[in-house]
TrEMBL record:
<feature type="compositionally biased region" description="Basic and acidic residues">
    <location>
        <begin position="36"/>
        <end position="56"/>
    </location>
</feature>
<feature type="region of interest" description="Disordered">
    <location>
        <begin position="294"/>
        <end position="323"/>
    </location>
</feature>
<feature type="compositionally biased region" description="Low complexity">
    <location>
        <begin position="296"/>
        <end position="313"/>
    </location>
</feature>
<protein>
    <recommendedName>
        <fullName>Heavy metal-binding domain-containing protein</fullName>
    </recommendedName>
</protein>
<feature type="region of interest" description="Disordered">
    <location>
        <begin position="34"/>
        <end position="64"/>
    </location>
</feature>
Length: 323
């Protein structure tokens, strides 16, 4: 993975997102493919500090990933699935389901989900059948409006992340975003964040893993790296998938305790970071809220709700699914 694909096309603009909401079991309505015009540079080897695609005219060329359900002719379409399963297809510029994908980070498809309040993050890997339908045990673990991100590379094309809203019926009290912290615990591990993201610039973020007060120096490769970092922007869930500096086995990248990422956030505001790392033959997800830009600004919180929170509504729920 070069630096271009992890940081392509960030923008400063705001967009209104009109995500379609789908009731589970009522997935028959096709999503009309939108004829997005995006011109990818053929040499697309932008460095991490590249600020975008210059004066290109396509509006989506400047957007972060995951904001659009259809881009460059590819469309993220839900498919009917039995209870407990999530299924979808990616249709291509010809309208037919895409069946040929490049392997990126060990997988042809990465499916990331989070609720609109940024809780409930999961990162799973569906399996495709011959007709181009991807299926996975549903990562939508509880009621709410979820954002699903399909992160993939069509064969012979540039990487793409499409986003789709999926509604799971039931009552949910949206939770305010947790306040920013620089240390968090998950599954008995303490993960400490150093570095702060600066809008529009490449910032180094280092995440250090310890357990029982001891640095963890034997992190296990997960999807070809010692850590995977996803950042979601509060407000529109713009999706940034950031990969670390260095790779396992390159002779210079230690297996912990620190994993360093070069991240570029597209604007000031609050972001939720989700670090996937593997240790003890299990994948763990550490979550942080960070503020980019004016760090004295209050974190916008979800509107108050009169509905009692459900036990599954929390952030950082144990038992994140990884497959
Ligand atoms: Cu993945």
């Amino acid at each position: 993975m070069n630096t271009a694909t992890k940081l392509s096309g960030f923008a400063l603009g705001l967009v209104a997102v009109f995500g379609a909401a789908y009731g589970i079991g009522n997935l028959a309505d096709p999503v009309a493919p939108a004829a997005e015009t995006r011109h990818d540079d053929s040499d697309s080897d932008h460095g991490a500090g590249d600020t975008g695609h210059g004066d290109e005219s396509g509006a989506s060329a400047h957007l972060p990933g995951g904001l659009l359900v259809s881009e460059r002719g590819y469309t993220f379409q839900p498919a009917a699935a039995p209870a407990g399963q999530f299924a979808f297809r990616i249709t291509g510029p010809d309208g037919a389901p895409v069946t040929r994908f490049e392997v990126a980070h060990d997988k042809r498809m990465h499916l990331i989900v989070a609720r609109r309040d940024l809780s409930g993050f999961r990162h799973v890997h569906p399996e495709m059948t011959g007709d181009g339908t991807w299926r996975v045990a549903s990562p939508l673990h509880g009621p709410g409006v979820w954002r699903a991100f399909a992160d993939f590379t069509p064969e012979g094309a540039e990487p793409l992340t499409l986003g789709l809203d999926v509604t799971v019926p039931g009552e949910l009290a949206a939770r305010p975003l947790p306040t920013p912290v620089t240390s968090t615990t998950v599954d008995g591990y303490t993960v400490t964040l150093t570095g702060t993201p600066e809008p529009g610039r490449t910032s180094r973020l280092t995440l250090s893993v310890s357990r029982d007060g001891q640095p963890v120096t034997d992190l296990q490769p997960y999807l070809g790296a010692y850590g995977h970092l996803v950042a979601l922007r509060q407000g529109d869930l713009a999706y940034l998938h950031v990969h670390p500096e260095g790779m396992p086995g390159d002779g210079r990248t230690p297996a912990g305790p620190a994993v360093t990422f070069a991240a570029e956030v597209p604007s000031a505001g609050a972001y939720r970071l989700y670090l996937d790392f593997r240790h003890g033959d299990a994948v763990h997800t550490a979550e942080f809220t960070v503020l980019a830009g004016d760090r004295t600004a209050p974190v916008p919180t979800a509107p108050a709700s009169t509905t009692a929170p459900t036990p599954d509504a929390g952030h950082g729920t144990p038992g994140h699914g990884h497959s």
